[in-house]
């Protein structure tokens, strides 16, 4: 009796499981087929994150179905777009920044942005994709959406406890007093890492910059693969041993936003040193060879990214500053003061030399 | 008369050959479409393809002339070899203790040997960091004493040991179980000391089992990607990490392709050697195993304590350290908040769905692969190559596969059938491996007896062979399921937000600043580990851990 029951139970479970396994994909398939609006494929980097109601409202107003596709880290995403250019996997891309722009241009994957009166292509932007841009900040079809700063963050408690003064310059940071305190992400595998390297080159000059990196190597510099490792395993605030980390100007605000208790001051702080602040501008663009039917929707999506609602929301989602003028900063951004000075590299220099700087950096710091 | 018999034999042979072809077709086509062709496409693009716009121009020297890459290849070899040696030296005593001694908790330890295999790589790396990292449970006191493991090759080696030591212990136990008690007794009565009896009688029997496990350890360490990425740092990373950097970040396909070809040649040779060693293990003979004895005497007792202690330190403690941190995140941090978020439950449900769907596909492929291997004339080179090919999905560079798929099937890359197929690709080797080993150990007589009583081949398979190998099949499926749950296959393709899985969610939380995110990542990691264990336990079921059918 018991055995019969056991047997029956097992087969019933198996039937249910199979039914579920078959029904689920069929349901997804049916759902995909019944949706009438056209599909807009948007490629983003993996940090892209906007409130779902906002995205749903856009879908309704533009009568399109958004298909968000994440291509990994920004550099990885761009490489995937370049490799698949013969049969593009998306219609619009969001997340190419000013450091990746030369490669995107060389890859020939971006389509020009249509010039319509009143569109974002005519409105001034607070940050420009490159020095060659007009007031709208657009370069090669890439429309600026948001910007941020890559700079040094420090663990306030660590410095207070050790009674060590904050460094005043990069030179000071390479002195023995600051030995073994800094962790940076590898520029080859991390976009903040690359931005920081570019800041040193732009701020100190190429030769002096690589001399500084060589001194830092001798001074116990730690290099990790990406920002997450730097921040979560090496930074002393999160259990590591390094009280200075390459991060973003908004990170102290994020610490307050995601903190355990409501706190009035951030446990970390920005340190803006000359030659150690880089402005990163992220943009969106239409992709060449994309579905022509999706072009109008693609333009609408880029307009949507620059709309006040998104520009407001992205501050605490992407932790970036809005590129659209006149958007009120989020309250928590009082902990993320903007630097007054930052380094810039011309598009021409970036195009011609980014690769060789990268190789030289690897040579000086890692090999 | 002669000629009819001959032709009947020939027809039977050709029928058998046709069966092999039919059985092998499924897994072969699957592996061809999802593994061989994409990787070959990428290698071809890198080595001979027309330069694409935006591709990094290759002005570097070939890898065998570049000192940095030489070092990478050299270190990759060295770390794999060192891990093999350490695993052998540490694993052999542990296997002996487990196989020869009777003590309380032996079965529990034996079951716990499975732990490292069912723990996702990401979780394991976090565990190693939680234990040995600069602020880890043991790392912090060690740092105070002046020993920092951070930035040393030990982090990667400890990670390798965590994953592979139990494999060697397991194989050592299986080997020792094959030693005949009578032969040892005869050796002892003829005056051999215990040491001499071990080296002359027991060692030759168990050596092939150990060798096969060490081959596998070498393969895993040599081609390991996840651990080396997280624990290797910038200096101690392996060639796979270098290939990943070259392809994903620098789009330098040419040097990546030449490196990948060198790696494939080495791993291919190793996989073949493994299949060759493995064939010596198939010994469907009845043996009386050496009886276990109680832990008595100072030497035995201290050996037992050392073996158990070392295993706990290397394989158990990292997981405990991670659980401790997760408990702290729940108790003192905001870890519990993650349990109330929609995303978490969506990730759990997605993880289960993808794994469930892929499980069905992986089981089918694995069973077909094993049956085809069995139907081939056993140890011909073709059969060996077929067996070795089951390891291909485990050793091929994941990033080369990902970008190959992108080149080949850009339009399908954001579709879920390909996602499920990718999961299955990474899981079916576990089913195939377990089943192949069980079929090897199965005496032919059972099937022959059933056939002589009139059962057709399908009936024999369904009523005789499969029930006999069912425990092995369930075990293989359990490994496959545990692997899939923590798998990062989504990252192979283009991820979609609606495909959020637990492992991608952990990475996502680690990608944002703030203590809430770190706490969430820790709790999610502990949850993923629990889920993998639960799946393993449910599928494998209870019962004596892996008893070969002929030992009953």
Beta-strand proportion of chain A: 15-25%
Span of the ends, CA to CA of chain A: 72 Å
Radius of gyration of chain B: 25 Å
The amount of helix of chain B comes to over 70%
Calculate the terminal CA-CA distance of chain B, rounded to whole Å.
Answer: 44 Å
What assembly state would you assign to the polypeptide chains in this entry? heterodimer
Task: Identify the strand order in the major beta sheet of chain B.
Answer: 1-2
| Average pLDDT taken over every residue of chain A | 87
Which class do the helix and strand fractions of chain A yield?
alpha/beta
Global geometry of chain B? globular
Derived from helix and strand composition plus strand pairing, the structural class of chain B reads mainly alpha
Overall shape of chain A: it is: globular
The tally of helices of chain B reads: 23
Mean pLDDT of chain B: 82
Biggest chain contact: A-B, 66 and 57 residues
Question: How many DSSP-defined strands of chain A?
Answer: 11
List keywords for this structure.
heterodimer; A: 367 residues; alpha/beta; eleven-stranded mixed β-sheet; 13 helices; B: 552 residues; mainly alpha; two-stranded parallel sheet; 23 helices; disordered C terminus
């Amino acid at each position: 009796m018991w055995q019969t029951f056991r047997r029956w139970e097992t087969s019933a479970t198996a039937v249910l499981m199979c039914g579920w396994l078959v029904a689920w994909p069929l349901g997804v398939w049916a759902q995909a087929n019944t949706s009438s609006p056209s599909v807009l494929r948007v490629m983003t980097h993996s940090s892209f994150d906007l409130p779902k109601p906002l995205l749903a409202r856009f879908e309704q107003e533009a009568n399109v179905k958004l298909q968000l596709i994440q291509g990994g880290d920004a550099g990885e995403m761009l490489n995937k777009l370049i490799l698949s250019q013969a049969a593009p996997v998306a219609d619009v891309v969001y997340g190419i920044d000013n450091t990746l722009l030369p490669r995107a241009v060389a890859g020939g994957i971006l389509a020009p942005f249509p010039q319509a009166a009143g569109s974002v292509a005519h409105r001034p932007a607070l940050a420009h994709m490159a020095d060659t841009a007009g007031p709208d900040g657009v370069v090669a079809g890439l429309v600026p959406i948001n910007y941020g700063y890559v700079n040094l963050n420090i663990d306030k408690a660590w410095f207070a406890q050790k009674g060590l003064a904050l460094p005043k310059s990069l030179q000071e940071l390479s002195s023995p007093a600051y030995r073994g305190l800094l962790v940076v992400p590898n520029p080859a595998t991390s976009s903040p890492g690359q931005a920081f390297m570019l800041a040193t080159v732009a701020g100190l000059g190429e030769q002096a910059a690589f001399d500084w990196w060589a001194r830092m190597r001798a001074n116990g510099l730690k290099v990790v693969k990406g920002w997450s490792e730097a921040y979560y395993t090496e930074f002393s605030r999160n259990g590591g041993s390094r009280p200075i980390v390459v991060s973003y100007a908004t990170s102290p605000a994020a610490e307050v936003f995601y903190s355990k208790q409501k706190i009035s001051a951030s446990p970390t702080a920005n340190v803006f040193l000359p030659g150690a602040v880089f402005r990163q501008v992220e943009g969106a663009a239409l992709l060449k060879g994309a579905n022509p039917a999706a072009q109008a929707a693609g333009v609408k999506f880029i307009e949507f990214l620059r709309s006040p609602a998104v520009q407001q929301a992205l501050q605490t989602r992407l932790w970036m500053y809005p590129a659209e003028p006149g958007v009120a900063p989020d309250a928590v951004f009082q902990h993320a003061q903007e630097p007054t000075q930052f380094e810039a590299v011309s598009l021409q220099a970036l195009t011609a030399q980014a690769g060789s700087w990268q190789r030289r950096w690897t040579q000086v710091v890692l090999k | 008369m002669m000629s009819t018999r001959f032709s009947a034999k020939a027809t039977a042979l050709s029928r058998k050959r046709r069966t092999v072809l039919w059985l092998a077709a499924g897994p072969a086509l699957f592996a061809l479409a999802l593994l061989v062709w994409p990787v070959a496409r990428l290698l071809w693009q890198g080595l001979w393809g027309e330069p694409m716009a935006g591709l990094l121009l290759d002005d570097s020297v070939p890898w065998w002339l570049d000192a940095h890459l030489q070092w990478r290849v050299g270190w990759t070899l060295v770390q794999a070899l060192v891990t093999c040696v350490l695993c052998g030296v540490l694993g052999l005593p542990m296997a002996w203790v487990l196989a020869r001694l009777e003590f309380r908790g032996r079965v529990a330890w034996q079951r716990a040997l499975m732990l490292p295999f069912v723990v996702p790589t990401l979780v394991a790396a976090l565990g190693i960091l939680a234990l040995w990292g600069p602020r880890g449970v043991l790392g912090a006191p060690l740092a105070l004493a002046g020993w920092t493991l951070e930035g040393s090759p030990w982090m990667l080696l400890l990670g390798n040991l965590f994953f592979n030591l139990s494999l060697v212990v397991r194989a050592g136990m299986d080997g020792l179980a094959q030693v005949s008690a009578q032969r040892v007794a005869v050796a002892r009565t003829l005056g051999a000391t215990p040491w001499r009896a071990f080296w002359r009688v027991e060692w030759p029997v168990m050596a092939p089992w150990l060798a096969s496990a060490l081959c596998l350890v070498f393969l895993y360490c040599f081609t390991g990607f996840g651990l080396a990425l997280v624990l290797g740092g910038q200096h101690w990373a392996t060639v796979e990490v270098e290939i990943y950097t070259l392809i994903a970040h620098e789009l330098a396909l040419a040097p990546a392709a030449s490196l990948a070809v060198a790696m494939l040649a080495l791993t291919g040779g190793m996989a073949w050697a493994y299949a060759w060693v493995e064939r010596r293990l198939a010994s469907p003979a009845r043996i009386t195993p050496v009886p276990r004895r109680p832990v008595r005497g100072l030497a035995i007792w201290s050996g037992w304590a050392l073996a158990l202690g070392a295993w706990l330190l290397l394989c158990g403690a990292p997981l405990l350290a991670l659980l401790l941190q997760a408990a702290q995140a729940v108790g003192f941090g905001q870890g519990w908040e993650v349990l109330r978020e929609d995303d978490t439950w969506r990730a759990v449900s997605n993880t289960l769905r993808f794994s469930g769907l892929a499980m069905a596909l992986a089981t089918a492929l694995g069973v077909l692969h094993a049956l085809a291997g069995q139907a081939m004339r056993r140890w011909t080179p073709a059969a060996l190559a077929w067996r070795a090919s089951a390891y291909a999905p485990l050793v091929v560079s994941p990033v080369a596969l990902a970008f190959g798929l992108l080149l080949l099937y850009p339009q399908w890359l954001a579709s879920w059938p390909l996602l499920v197929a990718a999961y299955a690709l990474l899981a079916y080797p576990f089913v195939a491996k377990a089943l192949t080993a069980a079929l090897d150990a199965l005496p032919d007589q059972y099937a022959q007896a059933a056939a002589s009583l009139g059962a057709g081949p399908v009936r024999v398979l369904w009523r005789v062979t499969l029930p006999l190998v069912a425990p092995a099949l369930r075990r293989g499926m359990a490994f496959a399921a545990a692997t899939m749950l923590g798998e990062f296959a989504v990252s192979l393709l283009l991820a979609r937000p609606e495909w959020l899985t637990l492992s991608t969610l952990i990475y996502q939380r680690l990608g944002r600043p703030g203590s809430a995110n770190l706490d969430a990542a820790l709790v999610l990691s502990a949850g993923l580990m629990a889920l993998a264990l639960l799946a393993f336990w449910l599928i494998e079921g209870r019962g004596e851990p892996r008893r070969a059918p002929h030992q009953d």
